[in-house]
Amino acid sequence: MEKLIELIFKNKEEGYWDFKKVHSVGIHKIANYPATMVPDMQYELIKIIAEYDGNIKNVLDPFHGSGVTLVESKTLGIQPYGIDINPLAHLITKVKLEGLNKKYLKSSLRRMEYEIFSRDIDYKKHHFNNINKWFREDIIRDLSKLKQIIQNEKVANIRRYYWVCLINIIKKYSNTRTTTFKLHMKLAEDISKIENKVFEDFIEAIHRNHKYLSQYSKENKYELKLGDSVELLKTYDKEKFDLICTSPPYGDNATTVTYGQYSMLPIYWIDYKDMDITTSNLKLVENYSSLDSFSMGGRKKWDTLLDSKVLSEFLDTIIDAKKSKVINFFMDYENSLKELVRILKKDKYMVITLGNRRVDNKKVPMVEFSKEFLVSKGFKIIADLQREIPMKRMPKKVSRVKDKSVHSMNQEHILIAKK
């Protein structure tokens, strides 16, 4: 048994890795995002591995979400690299990593506050498909004014910070329900009861959140890429990374956590250039479901089966109508694992946080598939930490099967594997 296992469990009481009493605070609360990692857990795992290894200079998270793993890596002095297909996640993480030009922030905040309450600001009423379905008319007016004022800010990192502060405001004042990440309308009576404090809430957010961010510096080294992880991983050289630490999707977004649907309303308000959306990746935001369709296991259609005993045995237990989506997802997932194996250095570690979702009310063997694949590539499974996830930001119910709600999973596995 490796010394690393002893360090992971040393002086740890039962249930320690659940982090039941830990809440995201500070930098990780500046913008809400679904199913985020536990910062304290990521920090400790990376710290233990880095101290044991003694030579970890960089870490990659190819599904970085709101950037928890990358921020904690930076805190430990390790250069973060990240990929995500979601422009909103990309923006949130970029703001957390790049910090703020605080020399200009104070005067910018004064200008922002003056212009918000000024009647003399010219602005164009914003529009996108179905905007009047998702926002009340007075909310559209006030958000449109904020959009123009933010666009007027010339310092790019401050402007991006303002967009991130606007995310929670957009979600709060939209006509969508909060019990699901999918776009579902509130009742008309609930929409009419929304008290419009858009300006006040935004000002409070921009004054509160900036203290959690570091000073912007050109010496602040990190790398973020927006797009399909499977394709972008191919751009990295063989054996580039000292540590890979990530939590991939547990299934295709359309039937698990709909990160795309959750994100689209804020995305449609924010200036595309500040999210690094260009003509080359514009397809990601074509409509309300496009992000989820382009995510892992989305539109691709595979006509071959994986060479996996674990997956084959599972597929035999579910109805034929459910099989194609599962196969699509696992083909994409295996392709990403192949690239991760290629770009991880020899004798280094991969840390993957996983969960087994349900299809046809049967548990999908994602953890077992991952172990099977990594072992087949010569990896040694160092540890399989099982933890309860009581604080994870998930909807109470994620889908319906034959008119019965399926509750979200409440257990995760943290696989630690050595190449």
Q: What's the architecture of the largest domain in CATH terms?
A: 3-Layer(aba) Sandwich
In total, the number of domains comes to: 2
Structural class: alpha/beta
Query: What's the CATH H-level homologous superfamily of the largest domain?
Result: Vaccinia Virus protein VP39
Largest sheet: 7 strands, mixed
Quaternary structure state of the chains depicted: single chain
What share of the residues does DSSP label as strand, in percent?
A: 5-15%
Name of the CATH class of the largest domain: Alpha Beta
Please trace the helix and strand order, writing H or E for each element.
Answer: HHEHEHHHHHHHEHEHHHHEEEHEEEE
What's this, in brief?
41% of the residues lie in helices and 15% in strands. The chain is built from 16 helices and 11 strands. The two termini are 15 Å apart.
Give a description of the structure.
The structure is a single chain. With 419 residues, this protein is an alpha/beta fold. The chain has 2 domains: 3-87 and 222-418, Vaccinia Virus protein VP39 (Rossmann fold); 102-212, no CATH class. The protein has helices at residues 3-9, 39-53, 68-75, 87-98, 102-116, 131-134, 137-151, 156-172, 188-192, 198-209, 229-233, 259-269, 290-294, 309-315, 320-343, 366-376, and strands spanning 58-61, 79-84, 223-226, 241-246, 344-354, 358-359, 362-363, 380-388, 397-401, 404-407, 411-418. The strands form 3 sheets. A 7-stranded mixed sheet has the order 3-2-1-4-5-11-8, with helices on both faces. Strands 6-7 form a two-stranded antiparallel sheet. α7 (137-151) runs antiparallel to α8 (156-172). The radius of gyration is 22 Å and the shape is globular. Mean pLDDT is 89; it is low at 391-407.
